[in-house]
């Protein structure tokens, strides 16, 4: 969980106000006048999050800007008035950011002010939630343990790790074929994906394959 949101300087506030009033580009987020603010915010959240993506919690031990996206928890396309809200910003890996994209993350989309309570969000919120309270990581498998966890695992496509790194067709380890059906189900609808994750976790906890997949 992020303990300290980025603090905008006077220059940052003036720049964001200017961009909000009249952007020089079709996408206000691309306006060069807020470039310095974005760079400082990204650097702040990389350190604050211990080099971990706010959605998958994978750690990337680099501060190179190309590795990280400065993410809007509530998409700026849906709520442009929250674009410069520090509590709406975090760093995410490009894969999670791309998967989440512009999906609605508020439980009440018509809310006027930026929420200050975790319950106002569908997604595991990096400023208001403890990631481990909602998602359990078992090797390359991410198991949701709450509704928020299910939303985050599904909408940020955290099943991609199991699909990539637990290759069921790898002839070097034919036992991995036991995961084939379950791994395929991870890309299905949320209910089926949840059941697949439970099957995998049960299998791993059972030891030597007592529970068939």
UniProtKB/TrEMBL annotation:
CDD domains tied to this protein: HNHc
Protein name per its UniProtKB record: HNH endonuclease
Native source species: Microbacterium proteolyticum
């Amino acid at each position: 969980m992020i303990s300290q949101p980025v603090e905008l300087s006077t220059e940052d506030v003036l720049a964001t106000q200017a961009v909000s009033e009249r952007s020089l580009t079709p996408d206000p987020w691309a306006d060069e006048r807020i470039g310095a603010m974005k760079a400082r915010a990204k650097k702040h959240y990389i350190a604050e999050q211990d080099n971990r993506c706010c959605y998958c919690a994978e750690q990337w031990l680099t501060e190179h800007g190309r590795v990280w996206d400065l993410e809007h928890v509530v998409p700026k396309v849906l709520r442009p008035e929250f674009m410069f809200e520090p509590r709406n910003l975090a760093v995410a890996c490009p894969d999670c950011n791309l998967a989440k994209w512009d999906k609605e993350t508020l439980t009440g989309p018509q809310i006027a002010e930026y929420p200050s309570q975790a319950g106002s969000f569908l997604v595991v919120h990096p400023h208001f939630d403890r990631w481990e309270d909602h998602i359990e990581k078992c090797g390359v498998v991410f198991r949701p343990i709450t509704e928020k966890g299910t939303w985050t695992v599904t909408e940020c496509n955290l099943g991609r790790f199991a699909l990539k790194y637990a290759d069921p067709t790898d002839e070097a380890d034919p036992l991995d074929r036991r995961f084939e059906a379950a791994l395929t189900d991870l890309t299905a609808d949320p209910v089926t994906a949840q059941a697949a994750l439970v099957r995998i976790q049960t299998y791993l906890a059972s030891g030597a394959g007592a529970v068939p997949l």
